[in-house]
Amino acid sequence: MRTLKHHPKTPRLALGLLLSLLPMSATPAQPLQMGGHSVRTLTGTVTDPHHEPLKGAVIKLQVGDTSNITTYITGPDGRYIFKRLDGNVDYKVWATFRERTSKAREISKFDTNMDKEVDFTLETF
């Protein structure tokens, strides 16, 4: 009867092979972080009731309940974008066009969607 000779690397090789079959990460993907904070991007489109883009609409973004407001003026496509927003802060966003103002929409710091899209429809007359 032939016996198998024990090789000292066999257990390590078997363990390495077994570990390579496990998933690389058991945790869900984390949002992009910048300096320890989650980073949010806010995009959207401003259109009229006929779904035509509104060039020159002003998007206002307010940080929480502060007086800190940033604005963006839409181009011919009616689109806007705010990049690198702190994902751990609440925001309010609204649109204005020719003295018409939309309702403010709130973006919660508890919203896990870091790529947020908020569209607005405004009357043009």
Order of helices and strands: HEEEEEEEEEE
The stretches of 5 or more residues where confidence is low (pLDDT under 50) are 17-35
The main sheet comes to: 5 strands, mixed
Estimated structural class: mainly beta
CATH superfamily: Carboxypeptidase-like, regulatory domain
CATH level-3 fold name: Immunoglobulin-like
- Report the β-strand fraction as a percent range: 35-45%
Count the DSSP helices.
1
CATH class descriptor: Mainly Beta
| Beta strand count | 10
Please state the overall shape, judged from the principal axes of the Cα atoms: globular
From the N-terminal CA to the C-terminal CA, the straight-line distance is: 97 Å
- Return the average pLDDT rounded to an integer: 80
| Count of all domains | 1
CATH second-level architecture: Sandwich
